[in-house]
Amino acid sequence: MVDKNIYIVQGEINAVVGAIKRNARWSTHTHLDEERDPLLHSFSLLKEVLNNITELSEIEPNVFLRPFLEVIRSEDTTGPITGLALTSVNKFLSYALIDPSHEGTAEGMENMADAVTHARFVGTDHASDEVVLMKILQVLRTLLLTPVGAHLTNESVCEIMQSCFRICFEMRLSELLRKSAEHTLVDMVQLLFTRLPQFKEEPKSYMGTNMKKLKMRAGGMSESSKWKKQKRSPRPPRHVTKVSPGPEQPAASASNTTGNGVTFIDAPSPSSSGSSENVSSAVSPATDSGLELSSQTTSKEDLTDLDQVASLGLNAGIPSCENESLKEGKIQSASVESIPEVLEECTSVAEHSDSASVHDMDYVNPRGVRFTQSSQKEGAALVPYGLPCIRELFRFLISLTNPHDRHNSEVMIHMGLQLLTVALESAPIANCQPLLGLVKEELCRHLFQLLSVERLNLYATSLRVCFLLFESMREHLKFQLEMYVKKLMEIITVENPKMPYEMKEMALEAIVQLWRIPSFVTELYINYDCDYYCANLFEELTKLLSKNAFPVSGQLYTVHLLSLEALLTVIDSTEAHCQAKVLSNIHQQEKEVVKSSPETMNNERVLSEGKSSSAVSEPAGACPPTSGCLMADHMKEGCMELEGGSEAAEKSIPRKPTRFSCILPSPQELMQIKKKKKLLITGTEQFNQKPKKGIQFLQEKNLLATPIDNNEVARWLRENPRLDKKMIGEFVSDRKNIDLLESFVGTFSFQGLRLDEALRLYLEAFRLPGEAPVIQRLLEAFTEHWRKSNGSPFANSDACFALAYAVIMLNTDQHNHNVRKQNVPMTLEEFRKNLKGVNGGKDFEQDILEDMYHAIKNDEIVMPEEQTGLVKENYIWNVLLHRGATDEGIFLHVPPGSYDHDLFTMTWGPTIAALSYVFDKSLEETIIQKAISGFRKCAMISAHYGLSDVFDNLIISLCKFTALSSESIENLPTVFGSNPKAHIAAKTVFHLAHRHGDILREGWKNIMEAMLQLFRAELLPKAMVEVEDFVDPNGKIYLQREETPSNRGESTVLSFVSWLTLSGTEQSGMRGPSTETQEAKRTALECIKQCDPEKLITESKFLQLESLQELMKALISVTPDEETYDEEDAAFCLEMLLRIVLENRDRVTCVWQTVRDHLYHLCVHAVEFCFLVERAVVGLLRLAIRLLRREEISAQVLLSLRILLMMKPNVLSRVSHEVAYGLHELLKTNAANIHSGDDWYTLFTLLECIGSGVKPPAALQVTARADNDTGAQSDSEVSSSYHPSDMSLDRGYTSDSEVYADHGKPGKMHRSVTDVDVMNSGWLVKTTPSMVVGRGCGRERKNKTIEKRAKISWQCKGRMGRRCSPRSRSLTSPIQWDGGGNRGKKVKLLG
């Protein structure tokens, strides 16, 4: 059975032959004419071959391709005929008629690439010609993207790319065709760079033989006639890369699956025919393109290669303008006429391969590649493309982005950037040294120059390429990254009215994008802030972003929000790391500690990078079937070993920066480095003013040795880029510092450098002074060191010195504008003449002098800080590259989460400030939520690291937004209820207090302030204002209750007086609130309910002890005074305190002393009854009832009941009811827990005092008075000052007679009742003997009050006319109180 592929070929033959015969030239139909015509004859021969076979694979691909390729090459065929032949070839490729595994495939592909890239045809009209060009693009794309494309050589790939670039940049072609070429190039670049990991670097010897031929060039000719004179199309791109002899990839299986679905297109550049006068302009697409592929910024390596290339007369691509020369003096681009048609000297790579033996072949193509059916059998081997063509393509793309090359139009620069983006997205370029060198030097330089252009499309694309570079290669680009970040900061801060707002916005977006890279911010901190001679990038950026988050005008714009977002990225990543640590259990954490050696961390980093790179190189599933990525995936056969090897190489342990003691230094070590850095900067500033002063300062700070070590100082002068070069020159050239000068020169490595090259390096390190003796000293030291380093190549030191001096003079002569105005610059002959006989009576080698002359003439030795513009930029860039090549350029990668604590301590202040501002000013829900999310994350981090000051600051900031502290009580429910932001802030405050209360310290005061405000405004839940009571029938009373005359026997007169005191506003308010006010209050109540403030009490048992103590301290601090708190507030806080103590009864021993002292203060120091005293007494008894069951505290609790006996008798009598009920409850529930006779005595004494009006034991009263100045007594002090053993009783109680008899004994008589003691004790005493209050005599008693010695007096008045509490017996009776340390003040409780 005949293979159907044969029928396909036969059908294409008939189509092409039919078209040829229809053309007027072939109108005769005799057999003889057809035999004579080479095109028709080759088709008839192919027909005979096909008729004699049954399988297409029986013949080599070259056999059935050749007739079609001859039609494509022919200058006599018209566009439609050439188009048909191209369509046929495309069909053969897409139908997979060519077997990739066939031994003749390589030559067939090479032949096809050559024919299509040099296609020629007779032009008809513009549109028809463009159709042919479009088909050429299609064929080239299919050729490179099908499996057989892997057989193409480096030269062929370069030609294919060159052809596409020509069409892309030919502005006379239609936009559709140019865009098609652009898309074709994108696909090709994607394919080539995705395959990059599959190629190995070649040995340099092999590379040298092939690099010369691979150089992509483009240069537009201003005259189209020059193009038409050319008989053959110009040679395509030449590569300067190492050839990788990747084995031929027999992708047989792939051929069946890809078919015509694989689409990476290359657009060939058709050349116009010189013989045909009617060739249309479309056929010579590159005439005015202005394209020059070899830019003037080619690397030195490329330039040397070009030199050798020029000697062969070899040019590729469209020849550049005749007057345009590469910077090397001898290298000039050949004009069109000088390009030979067939370059016999430069045959294919096959001739350079070891096994190549090329015999006579049937056909030699214009590029010198011979083709014959038997070639494979005879041993010729075409090497498939590899690294060389990729390197040359990469170099060419970089040259396109040079904004200082006048041939690069905006379209070309943009195209170059787009293709570089594709390349960087497709391949891990960092693993390929030849490409990395181009990135470090040229690409970064061009990109930074493009950041200054005003065209936003170029600016935006440059930022994108920069991000891709620094995301994947920053460890190789330390100083480039520093310069990039500085440029972005400059763009953001510059106050230039011409600077578009969008540029600042995009620069900020670029920073945000960088900061989102895992570990990037940490690496900034480690590699720059913690490097002696780098800028504090992290610190400066944080300050900049913080400042930028605050709008000057008050209006929030995108830049402000972007700045906040950048700050939040640090918080987000830190919070994520903290969450991960919290989730991992302790065992896993211990394992991680064991594994956290530098090697492990590095391996983890490498593995993560490996994953990301493999994700790039194997996205087959995600790519459309026609993508270059998919094709590259099919071509991966046999490359797994290579990838494995590269991964192994990657896993090598990273180098350690010299300033660190280990790969991951401790935070303490970093702090030391930062401290030293500050001192170095100060020393540098002093050196730049007066060198000796700077050196002396550094010696004082022990940063430089005393006495001075010249080698150490010399190293410092070389390493420190902040030093003024002029001051360095003056300092080292001083006569007193001769030894230092020798040490300074000794820091240079001049071995293997020509004298002018060494001098260039030397003079870049300092500013050469102008005095001749000083210059002489500097040059003598230089020449001596250079001679020693290079084995004394000249006759003597004088010869060497004279030559060095001559070089400096030549540099001045050639580049100093003042000299050039007066004299004609020195010629080479004059330079030689000046040095005649100087080398010990002989001449220097003329070649060396010539090389030196041209080197100085073409590239000035730049004196530091003297030049401006591009020359200065070049100097700065060279210094940057030199620094990057030293150990200073080591960039340390760190695992995610390292040093989060350090970073957070530096960023939390600016971040919280920015969050607060944005939260306050913004009205958008999303921004408010983002700010709150930021607050919560900051809280989580501070809780994780135990940073109480941060958390307190956060709570204080948020409390301001709740509006609880700023509003008056009357308006609070309305204002708070109608403010959604206040709701969010309040909920956040309480949520954070519930969740992270452990680390809250000072912030408790602000939260308690908010609680008090809610209490005053009656917004708290009922459960929080309802407290236990012994006397009330319900067992509970409310801390807040409206005053009614009937309650607790209040007089009608007092009620009337209270009503009279109401202001008009309050009276009108009593008429009833408006609907809006009611709704606001309802909303406020609902919000507070969601805040769940009671949880602060119930959850307090889970707080750390320190936080609990701070909470209790905040509650205790609320004591009645004239300004802030009234009695009701103090009572509320007391009740909260008691509830918290009861919640923490498991650890009550830790807090008991604090509570007992507070109760002592409230009870013992009160000289008059009030509600607060009542609540304190009830609270003490409640604590006793609950805590007596706990053995560890019961003794102290029972001792503390003696506080009641220390109370003033008149006050105790007023609380006798409560004490009686309390003691009854105590004995009923806990009698079995009272074991000591002393404790029983205390209880019975209390019962006597409250039951029968017996005065408390005088001993306790005296103690209370005497101890008044020192504050509360401890339980042990109470027990020692008054002990039942004085009574000599064994039983647990004392009879009334005994008590009275004891008190009546003269020896036991205490002086507490005398006036002298009263005066000494500091207590305020009433002149009225009656202790009964609230019987309608309040006003009279008030008038009778006598204050002695200006002691404390505070007065309790009911708020808004209602009484302070249900327990207060009199609203207007003055109550005397000794506040301990508050003596001398007059304090008034506000209602």
Query: Largest sheet at a glance?
Result: 2 strands, antiparallel
DSSP strand content: under 5%
Strands ordered across the widest β-sheet: 1-2
Q: What is the overall pLDDT average? A: 75
**What low-confidence regions span 5 or more consecutive residues with pLDDT below 50?**
205-213, 219-380, 598-625, 637-651, 1043-1052, 1264-1273, 1276-1391
Q: Label the overall shape.
A: elongated
Overall SS class? mainly alpha
Rounded Rg: 47 Å
| Cα-to-Cα separation, first versus last residue | 112 Å
- What is the number of beta strands? 6
Secondary structure: helix percent: 55-70%
Number of helices: 64
Task: Please characterize this protein's 3D structure.
It holds the Pfam family Sec7-like_HUS. It comes from Accipiter nisus. Residues 227-241 have a biased composition (Basic residues). Residues 216-302, 1265-1288, 1360-1391 are annotated as: Disordered. The chain is mainly alpha-helical and 1391 residues long. It is built from 64 helices and six strands. The strands form three sheets. The chain has a two-stranded antiparallel sheet with strand order 1-2. Strand 3 and strand 4 (1036-1038) form a beta hairpin. Helix 16 runs parallel beside helix 18.
Architecture blueprint of SSEs:
Blueprint: H1 4-22, H2 31-36, H3 38-51, H4 61-73, H5 79-94, H6 105-117, H7 126-145, H8 154-169, H9 175-194, H10 204-211, H11 224-229, H12 252-258, H13 300-311, E1 363-364, E2 370-371, H14 375-378, H15 387-400, H16 410-426, H17 433-450, H18 456-473, H19 478-493, H20 501-515, H21 520-529, H22 537-548, H23 558-583, H24 586-595, H25 598-617, H26 628-634, H27 640-650, H28 667-689, H29 691-700, H30 710-719, H31 725-732, H32 738-746, H33 755-763, H34 772-789, H35 797-815, H36 817-822, H37 828-834, H38 846-858, H39 869-885, H40 900-921, H41 925-945, H42 948-961, H43 972-977, H44 980-996, H45 1003-1016, H46 1022-1025, E3 1026-1028, E4 1036-1038, H47 1052-1061, H48 1064-1069, H49 1075-1091, H50 1095-1098, H51 1105-1116, H52 1127-1143, H53 1148-1164, H54 1171-1187, H55 1191-1200, H56 1202-1206, H57 1209-1214, H58 1216-1230, H59 1237-1252, H60 1258-1266, H61 1275-1281, H62 1296-1304, H63 1315-1321, H64 1338-1344, E5 1353-1354, E6 1375-1376
Antiparallel strand pairs: 1-2, 3-4, 5-6
Subcellular location: Cytoplasm; Endoplasmic reticulum-Golgi intermediate compartment; Golgi apparatus, cis-Golgi network; Golgi apparatus, trans-Golgi network
InterPro entries: ARM-type_fold, Mon2/Sec7/BIG1-like_HUS, Sec7_C_sf, Sec7_dom, Sec7_dom_sf
Region (Disordered): 216-302, 1265-1288, 1360-1391
